[in-house]
Design goal:
The protein is α/β, with parallel strands linked by helices. It folds into 3 domains: about 1-25 and about 30-370, TIM Barrel (Alpha-Beta Barrel), CATH 3.20.20.300; about 420-575, 3-Layer(aba) Sandwich (Rossmann fold); about 660-794, Sandwich (Immunoglobulin-like), CATH 2.60.40. The chain has 23 helices and 31 strands. β28 and β29 form a beta hairpin.
Length: about 800
């Protein structure tokens, strides 16, 4: 700490010179959420004052990133390497914690040591931004591991997501991190996409609401004390981007919401293409759409290696130098994760391929971001003193609640919750007693094992398997016999998708996964199953079968798992199928034979306890699908908004079972409204008619009634989680804006008059109540684009 304080004093002269022009001019505080300390003009003045003292090399350093490993020897920071590799400073330290095995205090001190170097030994004395992944919590050793985003999508719980990301903010700030490459707000409409697990599902409305909740928790009320969120991947990643109406109305919406409503100041373009161009070099995407149409005024950071990929992968540039010029001219401000293309910018500047003003704009935005985060203050706060706990009891409680709310009960013939006469359980399957099915991609555990081929400690944080959870829940009164029965996948049923990762990466992570795990014994699994009262078959994926860079051959249960489940069904004993994984997995040949099916996703550190408590009835499941569950392995996209005309799913969007029943009644809404009205009301009642307390996720959809309408046949326009005691009835209201019915037609945002049917539902196919309203008046053109996105709840 003494060294850090000395560094702050030593940088004072440079900072005072640069900031003399703006000292004392904090009269206009900006009122935007999360940006309350300085006006945009003040932030820009601060950045320009600093830039006026910088050389070209110092400027370029601020728009590049580096990994901490490049500056380390034998696990420790090397000042010699710092002086050699980053003599002029650096913009970002990339994924600074997910490759390391440090305690919270060691990580904080490591950050402080690097910042001390930057603030004492570089001429500019500018600290770096330390950024990390955060979709399942702070990706560092010992930090709380929440359920993967696809699971949290099934919670439909904005408040829970905000609490989770707020805990992530506190952990990251304690370590000295100020920036996250999260959330991922791509819409995912095929289970074949290996990154589907990182998304909140297929729907723009739900993804927008949950993404906004995530951003609000991560950035906090004042970003100077929060963590900057990055919306990614801008925009339409995972799809072809070939339908302008769908692109603007749906794929763009989640990013637009977090920019306009969440004040996100960081955007990451996708690896993909837009109209034939790499997105990272697309002026239409990054300047016309992002900055002009959406009004974004923040920082655009490249995905890792994406700038050079324009040359090495897309073959759309003739060299790394041309790729750098194309990206910077298009509006990509920073090259991550290491300088490959941007070091050619001085040469490009001399050759007239780029101008100084373009470089300066990117540098200015980089410095403004640092100012927003408080890093350019005279005494910036770097971490929190004292002992640190990244997984305190309050966080574990959040992880448990989140897991309980993310787990979807897909089928139940009455076997669940387990009855008191169940005395012997056969617990079988590759995910039954290990923790590798709990962990989604971009958890610390997945990253350290897949990307860095290192083991993680399953007790730091403590990961609870289903076997442990069931023993905790059932005690000694029930005999639980365990046998794996089969492996996850005997051959490596996934392939490295990206170039340059190394062919042995999957083999290495598989070896880490099966280390100390006994060989499966199929005969013994069948034997104990025949002798049991109930079979719990815990199947699905793990960290080497799903995630970025890992592409499976299909989406059925991997390897021999499906055949194994069929053998279990053939015993005649009731089979409860539990599936872990990052995607829906086709179960059409198993569904009829299973007594119950539980979709566990990648449920995080408390996942095993949460599933056990759902099975034993301590917790009543409430989750509903945020994604259509396919019946076949057809690779074409499936989207409920098309009405499932030709693709009947196994389970529809919005579907999920409970241990109780709910009835809907007394729908009230006006027969007409003016197209210029601010809101109109939709009111009804929901009653828990069963014997257990529960939570119903009520969904509001709209369908156009006019035959000539270009609107999709059905669209989500509102949802609420309604807690109901057994026998309790509650009134529910939605206040809907006519502007929520806006469409993108002929490059304009238009609200059309006409008739619309509003549907109160338990899923997109389980419509309980409906009424039609007529919007009267001339069509309304939104000259400034969308501004109203959500229904208000009462």
């Amino acid at each position: 700490m003494k060294k850090l304080k000395q560094s702050l004093l030593s940088r004072a002269s440079f900072v005072l010179i640069c900031l003399s022009s703006i000292l004392g001019c904090q009269s206009e505080a900006v009122q935007e959420k999360g940006m309350q300390s300085f006006s945009n003009a003040e932030l820009e003045a601060k950045a320009l004052a600093i830039m006026s003292q910088m050389t070209l090399d110092e400027k370029l350093a601020q728009i590049e990133g580096i990994r901490p490993n490049d500056l380390m020897i034998d696990g420790k920071l090397s000042l010699e390497k710092c002086r050699e590799i980053i003599p002029h400073g650096i913009g970002h330290f990339c994924q600074f914690s997910s490759s390391l095995t440090k305690s919270p205090e060691e990580l904080r001190d490591f950050v402080r040591e690097i910042q001390n170097y930057l603030m004492t030994e570089t001429r500019t004395k500018i600290p770096a931004i330390f950024h990390e992944e955060a979709i399942t919590g702070f990706a560092t050793q010992g930090a709380t591991t929440f359920p993967q985003q696809i699971g949290m999508g099934c919670s439909w719980n904005e408040a829970q997501i905000t609490k989770n990301s707020a805990s992530t903010r506190r952990n990251m700030r304690a370590a000295g991190a100020t920036y996250a490459l999260s959330p991922m707000l791509d819409l995912s409409r095929t289970a074949h996409w290996e990154r589907i697990e990182e998304s909140y599902g297929e729907d723009a409305y739900l993804t927008s609401a949950l993404g906004l909740a995530f951003v609000n928790g991560l950035q906090g009320e004042d970003i100077r004390n929060g963590v900057a969120a990055t919306t990614k991947h801008f925009a339409g990643y995972g799809t072809q981007n070939n339908n302008p109406k769908e692109f603007y109305e749906e794929y763009l919406m989640p990013h637009e919401v977090v920019i306009k409503k969440g004040n996100v100041k960081s955007v990451m373009p996708s690896y993909g293409r837009f109209k034939g161009e790499a997105v990272v070099t697309s002026k239409e995407m990054l300047r016309t759409i992002l900055r002009e149409k959406l009004g974004f005024d923040g920082l655009v950071v490249s995905d890792y290696g994406a700038v050079n990929l324009t040359y090495s992968g897309h073959k759309l540039a003739s060299s790394a130098k041309e790729a750098a010029v194309m990206a910077l001219n298009a509006g990509t401000d920073i090259e991550l994760a290491k300088p490959i293309a941007f070091p050619y910018l001085p040469e490009a500047l001399k050759e007239g391929l780029i101008n100084q003003a373009t470089i300066d704009d990117a540098v200015k935005r980089s410095l403004i971001m640092k100012a927003r985060l408080g890093l350019l203050d005279e005494n910036p706060a770097i971490g929190v003193d004292g002992e640190l706990d990244f997984d305190p009891p309050a966080n574990r409680k959040l992880a448990y609640e989140s897991a309980c709310q993310s787990i979807v009960l897909l089928k139940n013939d009455g076997i669940l919750p387990l009855k008191s006469d169940v005395k012997k359980i056969a617990l079988v399957g590759p995910n039954a007693a290990t923790v590798h099915g709990l962990l989604g991609d971009y958890t610390y555990q997945s990253m350290i094992s897949f990307w860095w081929s290192k083991e993680f400690d399953p007790n730091n944080p403590k990961l609870i398997s289903l076997s442990e959870g069931l023993h905790n829940a059932l005690g000694k009164d029930v005999n639980i016999e365990h046998e794996r029965g089969c492996d996850w996948s005997a051959p490596l049923e996934s392939v490295i998708k990206k170039d340059g990762l190394g062919d042995s990466r999957l083999a290495k992570v598989k070896m880490l996964t099966i280390k100390d795990v006994p060989q499966p014994d199929l005969a013994n699994a069948i034997k104990i199953s025949k002798e049991s009262d109930v079979i719990i078959a815990v199947m699905g994926e793990n960290i080497y079968l799903c995630g970025e860079g890992r592409e499976r051959k299909g989406i059925r249960l991997p390897g021999e798992q499906e055949a194994f489940v069929k053998k279990l069904i053939a015993t005649g004993k009731p089979v409860i199928l539990v599936m872990y994984g990052g995607r829906p997995q086709v179960v059409n040949e198993l569904e009829k034979g299973c007594a119950a099916i539980v979709q566990g996703w990648f449920p995080g550190e408390e996942g095993g306890q949460a599933i056990a408590d759902i099975m034993t009835g301590k917790v009543n499941p409430s989750a509903k699908l945020c994604i259509t569950y396919p019946k076949s392995e057809d690779k074409k996209e499936v989207n409920y908004k098309n009405g499932y005309v030709h693709d009947q799913p196994q389970y529809p969007f919005g579907y999920g079972l409970s241990y109780t029943n709910y009835t809907y009644s007394d729908l009230k809404m006006n027969a007409s409204a003016k197209i210029t009205d601010e809101r109109f009301e939709i009111a009804f009642k929901v009653k828990n008619t069963g014997e257990k307390d529960g939570t119903e996720i009520v969904q509001l959809y709209v369908s156009p009634k006019d035959e000539n309408s270009d609107m999709k046949p059905i669209q989500l326009k509102g949802f609420q989680r309604v807690d109901l005691k057994a026998g309790e009835e509650k009134a529910v209201k939605f206040l809907v804006s006519p502007e929520q019915l806006v469409q993108y037609i002929d490059e304009q945002w238009i609200v059309e008059s006409g008739k619309y049917e509003f549907k109160v539902a338990a899923s997109c196919t389980d419509i309980r109540l409906s009424e039609t309203i007529e919007l009267k008046g001339d069509a309304k053109i939104l000259e400034n684009g969308r501004s109203v996105f959500f229904s208000k709840n009462q």
